[in-house]
């Protein structure tokens, strides 16, 4: 029999988390009945069409405990008579000693609410992200005596202490993660753990092949090469390095740059483009739906991502947008960091450069601007690689097996 899980996420719906939305929709279409539990209310003004198609009910926990005190108090009172409450309290106090913050208290409060309100038919918890959401899942799992599993992604893997990662990996039944780099790191922490590499993959039905020709070569003012980056404006995406590289491009090249994404550094980046004297060639479009991103990918000639390891250790796994760009036959110029080299093959599907090196990045971009035939060949090879190695269906089949869905249900989907 398939499980009936509650799937915990940090926020829902989120424009930046299409990889979660496509997974939820696929699991639902494969016959899995689940409930979505969100630790935060949505902040994006728009939603993807994927979110509109998902029918699962959504339960929002108190984002801040003071906002719903009676709900939190009711959860506490109900759990005080639970013999497992004292075990949770001991685990929470252990965690609190290492992390004496209000956020740690909020995690316990949310778990008390969830444990008290979770429908009786739920027999499993599955959580996206190993940091905050996983703490709520762990405490809830103890209170309700339920197994839980984890999907680990990027920041959550690299910004929490190894002590905490080990404890959560040991407590969960199984863990999947989206890059080989992540899988090796987590497996080394707990060699006996059930950890599986499951790429997010790309649903190519939503990303059909474009009609693409060689494109411009940067020599004509009336036909500039369009360079695109889709990324949150945060440190690990290296957008400041990318802008610095663009400012170093030879003066005889005609290009335009578009950035899609929101984030706390957006205003800083706008100011940087102005200081560099390239603001008339740069457009910051803000957040966009997946349909809008697809349209932008089809208009672009080249995709760039200057990813880096942030000061706090945060880094990408394998960014979905890299696979999306490759699916649209765009060559990718990116940093050789995190999981990006797992998809981008140098000289075959794009070019890789060292992180934090705007000169190397500028040289790589200039090479491909001047050579549209090479861009076209790389783009076509990139799509072929995505179809062969990063199948969304293959990853979903592995998850379906994990959740107990029968083979015939998977094939019917």
UniProtKB/TrEMBL annotation:
This is Glycosyltransferase. It comes from the Bacteria. One of its GO terms (molecular function) is glycosyltransferase activity. Keywords: Glycosyltransferase, Transferase. Its EC number is 2.4.-.-. Residues 98-206 form the Glycosyltransferase subfamily 4-like N-terminal domain. Residues 223-385 form the Glycosyl transferase family domain. Pfam families: Glyco_transf_4 (PF13439), Glycos_transf_1 (PF00534).
């Amino acid at each position: 029999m398939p499980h009936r899980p509650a799937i915990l996420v940090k926020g829902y719906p989120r424009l930046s988390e299409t990889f979660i939305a496509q997974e939820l929709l696929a699991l639902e279409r494969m016959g899995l009945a689940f409930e979505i539990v969100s630790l935060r209310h949505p902040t994006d003004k728009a939603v993807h069409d994927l979110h509109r198609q998902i029918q699962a009910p959504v339960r929002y926990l108190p984002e801040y405990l003071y906002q719903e005190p009676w709900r939190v108090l009711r959860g506490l009172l109900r759990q005080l008579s639970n013999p497992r409450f004292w075990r949770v309290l001991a685990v929470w106090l252990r965690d609190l000693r290492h992390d004496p913050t209000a956020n740690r208290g909020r995690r316990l409060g949310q778990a008390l609410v969830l444990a008290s309100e979770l429908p009786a038919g739920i027999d499993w918890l599955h959580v996206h992200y190993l940091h905050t959401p996983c703490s709520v899942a762990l405490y809830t799992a103890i209170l309700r005596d339920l197994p839980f599993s984890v999907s680990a992604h990027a920041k959550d893997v690299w910004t929490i202490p190894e002590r905490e990662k080990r404890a959560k990996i040991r407590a969960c039944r199984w863990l999947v993660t989206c890059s080989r780099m992540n899988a090796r790191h987590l497996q080394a922490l707990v060699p006996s753990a059930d950890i599986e590499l499951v790429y997010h993959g790309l649903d190519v039905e939503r990303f059909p092949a474009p009609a693409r020709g060689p494109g411009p070569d940067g020599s004509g003012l009336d036909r500039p090469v369009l360079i695109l980056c889709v990324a949150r404006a945060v440190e690990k995406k290296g957008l400041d390095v990318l802008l610095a590289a663009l400012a170093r491009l030879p003066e005889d090249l005609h290009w335009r740059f578009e950035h899609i994404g929101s984030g706390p550094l957006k205003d800083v980046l706008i100011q940087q483009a102005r200081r560099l004297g390239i603001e008339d060639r740069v457009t910051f479009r803000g957040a966009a739906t997946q349909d809008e991103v697809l349209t932008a990918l089809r208009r672009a000639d080249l995709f760039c991502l200057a990813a880096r390891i942030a000061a706090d250790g945060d880094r990408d796994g394998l960014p979905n947008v890299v696979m999306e760009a490759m699916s649209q036959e765009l060559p990718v110029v990116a940093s050789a960091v995190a999981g990006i080299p797992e998809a981008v093959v140098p000289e075959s599907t794009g070019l890789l450069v060292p992180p934090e090196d705007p000169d190397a990045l500028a040289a790589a971009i200039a090479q491909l601007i001047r050579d549209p035939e090479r861009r076209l060949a790389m783009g076509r090879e990139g799509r072929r690689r995505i179809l062969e190695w990063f199948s969304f269906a293959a990853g979903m089949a592995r998850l379906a097996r994990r959740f107990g869905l029968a083979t015939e249900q998977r094939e019917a989907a």
